[in-house]
Design a protein that fits this description.
The structure is a single chain. The protein is an alpha/beta fold and about 400 residues long. The chain has a domain at about 15-35 and about 75-160 and about 200-320: Rossmann fold (3-Layer(aba) Sandwich), CATH 3.40.50.300. It contains 15 helices and 10 strands. α7 (about 140-150) crosses α10, α9 (about 190-195) crosses α10 and α11 (about 225-240) runs parallel beside α12. The chain is globular, with a radius of gyration of 22 Å.
C-alpha cells in the first residue's frame, strides 16, 4: 500500500518552494504524472492562471464546444457521493465550482460522513480526493477507514465490523508475539493486517483507492488558504483537474498574514477563499463547519447556528445541517412513543437548508454506525414530524 504525504506549509523562499514542489512530484503516481491527452489539451486551452481574465461569450462557447466534441463532459456530469437520496436531492452529486458546507454539533458524524464521501469518490478510477484535516492525523484517518471498510458500506456487515479498539489489539498482540519469539513474521503493519482474517478484507478494500486519496494533517498555525490553493493547483495539474477538495474544518483554516477583526471576519475570509478555489480551479469543494454556542444550546441546529458570518449562507451553493433524529422528533406528534423512539438515537437527519440549484429544506435520515465510523448510505426521507418544521410549497 503506497502512502502519500504532502507539505501543509508553503514558505515564501524560492528554495523552500522548490523543495516542496519536488516532494509533491515525487509522490505522484505514474498515472498522475502523465495526464491523458485530452486533459493536457484542455489545460493548454484554458490555463488556470487565466481563470479571472475577461473572455467574450463566443470564446466561452467555443471552449465549451471543443470539450464536448472531445468527449470531455466533466462539467456536466456530477460526482455521486454514494448517499441516497442525498445525491438525488442535489442533482446527482457534487459539481465543479460548487462549495458545499456541512454543519452540526460536535460528535454528530460530520467527519464520518465527509471521510466516507471522500472514500466513495476516490473509488472511481479517474478521480482523486484531497482531504485536509485540522483535527486528525493521517494515520488516525487511515485507521478510521479500516474500520469503515470492515463494515463495508453499503453492505453493512456488522458481524465482521471492527472498532478502533479491536484494530489496535490485533496490531499490538501480533507484535508482542513476534517480540516473544512466538512468530517469525516480518512484523510490518501491512503483513499483520493482511494476514489477520479480521482485517485482511478491509485492507484489500482500502488499497483499491489508496493511491487516489491524498491526506494532509493541516495546521491551524501554518496551513493557510494560500497553501491549500497551491497544493490543490499542483494536484489539478497532476491529475488533469480530476480533484475534489475536502476541508475538516473551515474555522481552523489559517488566514495570516491577514488580521481579521473578529471571528466573523475570519470566517468571511475563509469561506470566500474556499469559494474562490472552487471557481478558479474548477473543482468541487466540501467543507465541515462547526456550530456556535447558541446552536449547541438549541433543540435543533440550523444554518444560522453555524459559527461565523452570514457569508456561510451567501457563498455556499449547498448547505447541509446534521441533527440527531431522536432529539428533534416532535414530542407532540400523535404517533410519538418514547419507547419506540429510542431506536432513532442512532439515526442522523441531514437537512439541505440551502440548495442554489434545487429545492431546500429537505430532510433525510441515515443510520450511523459510530463505533465503526460509517453511515449506512441507504437513507430515506424523514416520515415523522420534526420540531421547527417549515411548510414549504412545492
Amino acid at each position: 500500500m503506497s502512502t502519500r504525504r504532502f507539505t501543509s506549509d508553503f514558505p515564501e523562499s524560492g528554495e523552500s518552494q522548490s523543495v516542496a514542489r519536488d516532494q509533491l512530484d515525487a509522490n505522484k503516481t505514474p498515472a498522475a504524472r502523465k495526464p491523458r491527452p485530452e486533459q493536457s489539451k484542455k489545460s493548454q486551452e484554458a490555463p488556470r492562471n487565466a481563470a479571472h481574465l475577461p473572455r467574450t461569450l463566443t470564446q466561452v462557447l467555443n471552449e465549451a464546444n471543443e470539450r464536448v466534441v472531445q468527449g470531455d463532459l466533466v462539467d456536466y456530469v456530477p460526482l455521486p457521493t454514494g448517499f441516497d437520496p442525498f445525491d438525488g436531492f442535489i442533482g446527482g452529486g457534487l459539481r465543479k465550482t460548487e462549495l458545499v458546507l456541512l454543519g452540526g454539533a460536535q460528535g454528530i458524524g460530520k467527519t464520518i460522513a465527509t471521510l466516507q464521501i471522500a472514500r466513495n469518490i476516490a473509488m472511481r478510477p479517474d478521480q482523486y480526493v484531497f482531504y485536509l484535516s485540522y483535527e486528525h492525523t493521517e494515520t488516525h484517518l487511515m485507521h478510521r477507514l479500516l474500520c469503515l471498510e470492515s463494515i463495508n458500506p453499503p453492505e453493512i456487515d456488522v458481524n465482521k465490523a471492527l472498532k478502533l479498539r479491536d484494530l489496535y489489539q490485533i496490531i499490538v498482540a501480533q507484535r508482542a508475539k513476534e517480540f516473544m519469539g512466538k512468530d517469525n513474521g516480518a512484523g510490518s503493519l501491512q503483513t499483520i493486517l493482511g494476514d489477520n482474517p479480521k482485517t485482511s478484507a478491509a485492507l484489500a478494500r482500502m488499497q483499491r483507492y489508496a493511491d487516489r486519496l491524498i491526506l494532509v494533517k493541516a495546521s491551524p498555525a501554518v496551513t493557510t488558504l494560500r497553501a491549500i490553493k497551491e497544493m490543490t493547483v499542483r494536484l489539478c495539474d497532476a491529475t488533469g483537474g480530476n480533484v475534489v477538495l475536502f476541508v475538516d474544518y473551515l474555522q481552523k483554516v489559517a488566514v495570516h498574514p491577514e488580521r481579521p477583526r473578529d471571528e466573523n471576519d475570519k470566517v468571511t475570509m475563509i469561506v470566500e477563499g474556499l469559494k474562490d478555489i472552487a471557481l478558479s480551479l474548477d473543482v468541487p469543494v466540501w467543507s465541515i463547519v462547526a456550530a456556535d454556542r447558541e446552536g449547541l444550546k438549541s433543540k435543533r441546529i440550523h444554518l444560522y447556528h453555524l459559527r461565523g458570518s452570514s457569508a456561510l449562507d451567501y457563498e455556499s451553493d449547498i448547505a447541509i445541517v446534521m441533527n440527531n433524529k431522536y432529539q428533534i422528533m416532535s414530542k407532540d406528534h400523535v404517533s410519538f412513543n418514547p419507547y419506540t423512539a429510542k431506536q432513532f438515537r442512532d439515526w442522523v437527519v441531514w437537512t439541505i437548508e440551502k440548495n442554489r440549484a434545487g429545492r431546500a429544506m429537505l430532510d433525510m435520515e441515515f443510520q450511523l454506525y459510530g463505533p465503526h465510523f460509517a453511515f449506512d448510505p441507504r437513507g430515506q426521507k424523514v416520515q415523522q414530524q420534526l420540531i421547527d418544521d417549515k411548510v414549504l410549497e412545492s
